[in-house]
Amino acid sequence: MAASKVSSRDKPVIGINSDPTKSVGHLCLPSRYSNNFDKVIELLRDGKFQWQYKQRLRVTLIGDAADEEAKALNDMRYDMRGFLDQDFDQDRYNQQHNNNNPNHHHHHHQRANHLDGQCNNVTFKTVDGKVFHKIRQLKERALNEVFVGETLSARVSYYELSVDNNQLIKMKSSGLTICTGTGSTSWYYNINKVTEQQVFSIVSIINKVTQTNKVNPNDSTLIGDITKQFNDTLTFAPTEPIMAYSIRDPIGYASAVGHSHRGHAKRIEVKSRMQNACLVLDGCQFIPFNDGSYALIEMYDEDALKTISLE
Protein backbone atom coordinates (compact mmCIF):
# COMPACT_ATOMS: atom_id res chain seq x y z
CA MET A 1 0.00 0.00 0.00
CA ALA A 2 1.54 3.27 -1.16
CA ALA A 3 0.38 5.22 1.92
CA SER A 4 2.52 2.96 4.12
CA LYS A 5 5.68 3.92 2.24
CA VAL A 6 5.40 7.69 2.69
CA SER A 7 8.09 8.53 5.24
CA SER A 8 7.57 12.28 5.61
CA ARG A 9 4.91 13.64 7.94
CA ASP A 10 4.72 16.72 5.70
CA LYS A 11 3.83 14.93 2.45
CA PRO A 12 0.02 14.94 2.01
CA VAL A 13 -1.77 11.89 0.60
CA ILE A 14 -5.31 11.88 -0.80
CA GLY A 15 -7.09 8.56 -1.31
CA ILE A 16 -9.92 7.93 -3.76
CA ASN A 17 -12.28 5.06 -2.94
CA SER A 18 -12.48 2.92 -6.08
CA ASP A 19 -15.20 0.69 -4.59
CA PRO A 20 -17.43 3.06 -2.57
CA THR A 21 -20.39 0.64 -2.43
CA LYS A 22 -18.43 -2.03 -0.54
CA SER A 23 -15.44 -0.34 1.09
CA VAL A 24 -15.45 2.11 4.00
CA GLY A 25 -12.00 3.40 3.06
CA HIS A 26 -10.95 5.49 6.07
CA LEU A 27 -7.91 6.75 4.17
CA CYS A 28 -10.09 7.82 1.27
CA LEU A 29 -12.33 10.79 0.74
CA PRO A 30 -16.05 10.25 1.50
CA SER A 31 -17.55 7.88 -1.06
CA ARG A 32 -19.86 10.55 -2.48
CA TYR A 33 -16.79 12.20 -4.01
CA SER A 34 -15.67 9.06 -5.85
CA ASN A 35 -17.79 9.96 -8.88
CA ASN A 36 -17.55 13.71 -8.41
CA PHE A 37 -13.85 14.48 -8.27
CA ASP A 38 -14.34 17.87 -9.91
CA LYS A 39 -15.97 18.95 -6.65
CA VAL A 40 -12.89 17.79 -4.73
CA ILE A 41 -10.63 19.91 -6.93
CA GLU A 42 -12.91 22.89 -6.38
CA LEU A 43 -12.84 22.49 -2.59
CA LEU A 44 -9.06 22.09 -2.56
CA ARG A 45 -8.60 25.14 -4.76
CA ASP A 46 -10.83 27.23 -2.49
CA GLY A 47 -9.09 25.99 0.67
CA LYS A 48 -12.28 24.40 2.00
CA PHE A 49 -10.65 21.46 3.76
CA GLN A 50 -8.83 20.61 6.97
CA TRP A 51 -5.53 18.83 7.39
CA GLN A 52 -5.81 15.52 9.19
CA TYR A 53 -3.09 13.23 10.53
CA LYS A 54 -3.87 9.52 10.52
CA GLN A 55 -1.84 7.40 12.92
CA ARG A 56 0.38 4.56 11.69
CA LEU A 57 2.23 1.64 13.29
CA ARG A 58 6.01 1.42 13.62
CA VAL A 59 7.49 -2.09 13.61
CA THR A 60 10.92 -3.03 14.98
CA LEU A 61 12.32 -6.53 14.45
CA ILE A 62 14.59 -7.92 17.17
CA GLY A 63 17.01 -10.83 17.22
CA ASP A 64 16.69 -13.44 14.46
CA ALA A 65 13.87 -11.52 12.79
CA ALA A 66 16.23 -8.61 12.07
CA ASP A 67 18.05 -10.79 9.52
CA GLU A 68 14.93 -11.84 7.64
CA GLU A 69 14.33 -10.45 4.16
CA ALA A 70 11.03 -8.68 3.59
CA LYS A 71 9.02 -9.65 0.53
CA ALA A 72 6.05 -8.11 -1.21
CA LEU A 73 3.08 -10.33 -0.42
CA ASN A 74 1.84 -10.07 -4.01
CA ASP A 75 5.03 -11.85 -5.08
CA MET A 76 4.50 -14.68 -2.60
CA ARG A 77 2.07 -16.39 -4.96
CA TYR A 78 5.14 -17.19 -7.04
CA ASP A 79 7.32 -18.14 -4.08
CA MET A 80 4.83 -19.80 -1.74
CA ARG A 81 5.49 -23.33 -2.96
CA GLY A 82 9.18 -23.00 -2.20
CA PHE A 83 8.49 -21.27 1.09
CA LEU A 84 6.24 -24.05 2.35
CA ASP A 85 7.94 -27.12 0.84
CA GLN A 86 11.36 -27.70 2.37
CA ASP A 87 12.21 -30.32 -0.28
CA PHE A 88 11.57 -27.88 -3.08
CA ASP A 89 14.67 -26.47 -4.82
CA GLN A 90 14.05 -22.76 -4.24
CA ASP A 91 17.19 -21.58 -6.09
CA ARG A 92 16.27 -23.57 -9.18
CA TYR A 93 12.68 -22.33 -8.99
CA ASN A 94 13.78 -18.70 -8.66
CA GLN A 95 16.17 -19.05 -11.60
CA GLN A 96 13.46 -20.51 -13.81
CA HIS A 97 10.96 -17.90 -12.69
CA ASN A 98 13.37 -15.02 -13.31
CA ASN A 99 14.25 -16.39 -16.75
CA ASN A 100 10.58 -16.35 -17.64
CA ASN A 101 10.13 -12.90 -16.10
CA PRO A 102 13.28 -10.86 -16.81
CA ASN A 103 11.97 -7.79 -14.99
CA HIS A 104 10.90 -9.65 -11.86
CA HIS A 105 14.30 -10.01 -10.19
CA HIS A 106 15.23 -6.36 -10.54
CA HIS A 107 11.80 -5.15 -9.44
CA HIS A 108 11.76 -7.42 -6.40
CA HIS A 109 15.08 -6.15 -5.05
CA GLN A 110 14.15 -2.54 -5.67
CA ARG A 111 11.03 -3.04 -3.59
CA ALA A 112 12.83 -4.94 -0.81
CA ASN A 113 15.51 -2.27 -0.53
CA HIS A 114 12.87 0.42 -0.31
CA LEU A 115 10.84 -1.34 2.37
CA ASP A 116 13.61 -2.43 4.73
CA GLY A 117 15.52 -0.29 7.18
CA GLN A 118 19.09 -0.96 8.23
CA CYS A 119 20.01 -3.72 10.68
CA ASN A 120 21.67 -1.91 13.58
CA ASN A 121 24.02 -3.30 16.21
CA VAL A 122 22.46 -1.67 19.26
CA THR A 123 21.36 -3.04 22.61
CA PHE A 124 17.70 -3.87 23.16
CA LYS A 125 16.24 -5.51 26.26
CA THR A 126 12.98 -7.39 25.85
CA VAL A 127 10.18 -7.55 28.42
CA ASP A 128 11.38 -10.98 29.55
CA GLY A 129 14.88 -9.62 30.22
CA LYS A 130 16.74 -10.94 27.17
CA VAL A 131 19.33 -8.64 25.65
CA PHE A 132 19.83 -8.40 21.88
CA HIS A 133 22.42 -6.43 19.95
CA LYS A 134 20.76 -6.62 16.57
CA ILE A 135 17.52 -4.86 15.64
CA ARG A 136 15.96 -3.50 12.47
CA GLN A 137 13.27 -0.86 12.30
CA LEU A 138 11.17 -1.17 9.15
CA LYS A 139 10.95 1.93 6.99
CA GLU A 140 7.35 1.18 6.14
CA ARG A 141 4.64 2.34 8.55
CA ALA A 142 1.45 0.27 8.69
CA LEU A 143 -1.59 2.45 8.08
CA ASN A 144 -4.15 -0.32 8.72
CA GLU A 145 -2.83 -3.31 10.64
CA VAL A 146 -0.06 -5.76 11.42
CA PHE A 147 -0.82 -9.49 11.38
CA VAL A 148 1.26 -12.11 13.20
CA GLY A 149 0.64 -15.83 12.80
CA GLU A 150 1.47 -19.12 11.14
CA THR A 151 1.67 -18.99 7.35
CA LEU A 152 -0.50 -22.10 7.11
CA SER A 153 -3.94 -21.13 8.39
CA ALA A 154 -4.66 -24.71 9.49
CA ARG A 155 -1.81 -24.57 12.01
CA VAL A 156 -2.25 -23.02 15.47
CA SER A 157 -0.23 -19.84 16.04
CA TYR A 158 1.84 -19.99 19.23
CA TYR A 159 3.42 -16.81 20.57
CA GLU A 160 3.96 -14.69 23.66
CA LEU A 161 2.33 -11.28 23.98
CA SER A 162 3.15 -8.26 26.13
CA VAL A 163 0.78 -5.28 26.23
CA ASP A 164 2.10 -1.94 27.51
CA ASN A 165 5.25 -3.43 29.07
CA ASN A 166 3.38 -6.05 31.10
CA GLN A 167 4.76 -9.57 31.33
CA LEU A 168 4.77 -11.83 28.30
CA ILE A 169 1.80 -14.19 28.25
CA LYS A 170 1.81 -17.40 26.20
CA MET A 171 -0.95 -17.46 23.61
CA LYS A 172 -2.42 -19.95 21.16
CA SER A 173 -4.81 -18.70 18.50
CA SER A 174 -5.31 -18.42 14.77
CA GLY A 175 -3.26 -15.23 14.77
CA LEU A 176 -2.82 -11.77 16.24
CA THR A 177 -3.92 -8.50 14.62
CA ILE A 178 -2.86 -5.02 15.71
CA CYS A 179 -4.56 -2.07 14.05
CA THR A 180 -4.88 1.70 13.90
CA GLY A 181 -8.15 3.60 13.82
CA THR A 182 -7.95 3.44 10.03
CA GLY A 183 -7.80 -0.35 10.16
CA SER A 184 -10.36 -0.74 12.96
CA THR A 185 -13.22 -0.98 10.46
CA SER A 186 -11.69 -4.03 8.78
CA TRP A 187 -10.23 -7.13 10.44
CA TYR A 188 -10.50 -5.87 14.02
CA TYR A 189 -14.18 -5.02 13.59
CA ASN A 190 -15.11 -8.23 11.83
CA ILE A 191 -13.19 -10.46 14.25
CA ASN A 192 -14.96 -8.99 17.28
CA LYS A 193 -18.41 -7.94 16.08
CA VAL A 194 -21.54 -9.70 17.32
CA THR A 195 -24.60 -10.67 15.32
CA GLU A 196 -28.25 -10.22 16.18
CA GLN A 197 -28.50 -13.99 16.55
CA GLN A 198 -25.77 -13.94 19.21
CA VAL A 199 -27.39 -11.04 21.08
CA PHE A 200 -30.75 -12.86 20.97
CA SER A 201 -29.14 -15.93 22.54
CA ILE A 202 -27.35 -13.91 25.24
CA VAL A 203 -30.50 -11.99 26.20
CA SER A 204 -32.46 -15.25 26.36
CA ILE A 205 -29.85 -16.77 28.68
CA ILE A 206 -29.81 -13.64 30.89
CA ASN A 207 -33.58 -13.83 31.25
CA LYS A 208 -33.37 -17.50 32.14
CA VAL A 209 -30.55 -17.12 34.68
CA THR A 210 -32.05 -14.05 36.37
CA GLN A 211 -35.59 -15.40 36.06
CA THR A 212 -36.75 -12.08 34.65
CA ASN A 213 -38.07 -10.90 31.32
CA LYS A 214 -36.96 -7.28 31.39
CA VAL A 215 -35.55 -7.53 27.87
CA ASN A 216 -37.66 -9.17 25.21
CA PRO A 217 -35.38 -11.20 22.90
CA ASN A 218 -38.16 -11.28 20.31
CA ASP A 219 -38.11 -7.49 19.97
CA SER A 220 -36.11 -7.33 16.74
CA THR A 221 -35.74 -3.54 16.90
CA LEU A 222 -34.27 -3.66 20.40
CA ILE A 223 -31.96 -6.57 19.55
CA GLY A 224 -30.82 -4.69 16.47
CA ASP A 225 -30.08 -1.55 18.51
CA ILE A 226 -28.07 -3.50 21.10
CA THR A 227 -26.09 -5.21 18.36
CA LYS A 228 -25.31 -1.94 16.61
CA GLN A 229 -24.33 -0.13 19.79
CA PHE A 230 -21.86 -2.86 20.75
CA ASN A 231 -20.35 -3.08 17.27
CA ASP A 232 -19.99 0.70 17.07
CA THR A 233 -17.69 0.61 20.12
CA LEU A 234 -15.16 -1.46 18.16
CA THR A 235 -14.13 1.26 15.72
CA PHE A 236 -12.29 4.47 16.56
CA ALA A 237 -11.01 7.54 14.76
CA PRO A 238 -7.92 7.21 12.52
CA THR A 239 -6.43 10.23 14.29
CA GLU A 240 -6.52 8.67 17.76
CA PRO A 241 -2.97 7.93 19.01
CA ILE A 242 -3.77 4.40 20.12
CA MET A 243 -3.76 0.93 18.58
CA ALA A 244 -6.12 -1.98 19.09
CA TYR A 245 -5.11 -5.63 19.28
CA SER A 246 -7.18 -8.76 18.85
CA ILE A 247 -6.22 -12.36 19.62
CA ARG A 248 -8.08 -14.10 16.84
CA ASP A 249 -9.87 -17.34 17.81
CA PRO A 250 -8.04 -17.68 21.16
CA ILE A 251 -7.45 -21.19 22.47
CA GLY A 252 -7.45 -21.09 26.26
CA TYR A 253 -5.89 -17.64 26.46
CA ALA A 254 -4.57 -16.55 29.84
CA SER A 255 -7.71 -15.00 31.30
CA ALA A 256 -6.52 -16.09 34.74
CA VAL A 257 -3.99 -13.25 34.73
CA GLY A 258 -6.46 -10.70 33.42
CA HIS A 259 -5.31 -10.71 29.79
CA SER A 260 -8.20 -9.77 27.51
CA HIS A 261 -8.45 -11.26 24.03
CA ARG A 262 -8.81 -7.71 22.66
CA GLY A 263 -8.11 -4.18 23.80
CA HIS A 264 -6.21 -0.94 23.25
CA ALA A 265 -2.50 -0.40 23.77
CA LYS A 266 0.38 2.04 23.34
CA ARG A 267 3.09 -0.60 23.00
CA ILE A 268 2.98 -4.27 22.01
CA GLU A 269 5.82 -6.78 22.09
CA VAL A 270 5.45 -10.21 20.50
CA LYS A 271 7.75 -13.21 20.79
CA SER A 272 7.31 -15.95 18.20
CA ARG A 273 7.20 -19.61 19.21
CA MET A 274 6.08 -20.71 15.74
CA GLN A 275 7.64 -22.91 13.07
CA ASN A 276 6.68 -21.30 9.79
CA ALA A 277 5.19 -17.94 10.68
CA CYS A 278 5.00 -14.46 9.25
CA LEU A 279 4.51 -10.84 10.16
CA VAL A 280 2.52 -8.95 7.53
CA LEU A 281 2.09 -5.18 7.26
CA ASP A 282 -1.07 -3.84 5.60
CA GLY A 283 -1.50 -7.07 3.68
CA CYS A 284 1.44 -6.24 1.42
CA GLN A 285 4.78 -6.74 3.20
CA PHE A 286 5.65 -10.29 4.31
CA ILE A 287 8.44 -11.03 6.81
CA PRO A 288 9.27 -14.51 8.19
CA PHE A 289 8.73 -14.49 11.95
CA ASN A 290 9.77 -17.79 13.48
CA ASP A 291 10.67 -19.20 16.90
CA GLY A 292 12.89 -16.88 18.93
CA SER A 293 12.08 -13.76 16.92
CA TYR A 294 10.71 -10.65 18.60
CA ALA A 295 8.71 -7.74 17.18
CA LEU A 296 7.94 -4.41 18.80
CA ILE A 297 4.89 -2.49 17.55
CA GLU A 298 4.54 1.15 18.60
CA MET A 299 2.81 4.36 17.59
CA TYR A 300 4.40 7.81 17.34
CA ASP A 301 2.89 11.13 16.25
CA GLU A 302 5.88 11.73 13.99
CA ASP A 303 4.84 8.69 11.91
CA ALA A 304 1.31 9.98 11.22
CA LEU A 305 0.18 10.31 7.60
CA LYS A 306 -0.93 13.75 6.45
CA THR A 307 -4.30 13.67 4.67
CA ILE A 308 -7.28 15.99 4.23
CA SER A 309 -10.82 16.09 5.54
CA LEU A 310 -13.68 17.64 3.60
CA GLU A 311 -16.24 17.15 6.38
TrEMBL record:
SUPFAM superfamilies in alphabetical order: NAD kinase/diacylglycerol kinase-like
MF term (GO), any: NAD+ kinase activity
Region (Disordered): 1-20, 92-113
The keyword Transferase is annotated on this UniProt entry: yes
Record InterPro entries: ATP-NAD_kinase_N, ATP-NAD_kinase_PpnK-typ_C, NAD/diacylglycerol_kinase_sf
Record's compositionally biased regions (Basic residues): 103-112
GO cellular component: mitochondrion
Domain of life: Eukaryota
Biological processes per GO annotation: NAD+ metabolic process
Entry keywords, A to Z: Kinase, Transferase
Protein's recorded name: NAD kinase domain-containing protein 1
Organism name: Aceria tosichella
Annotated gene: nadkd1_1
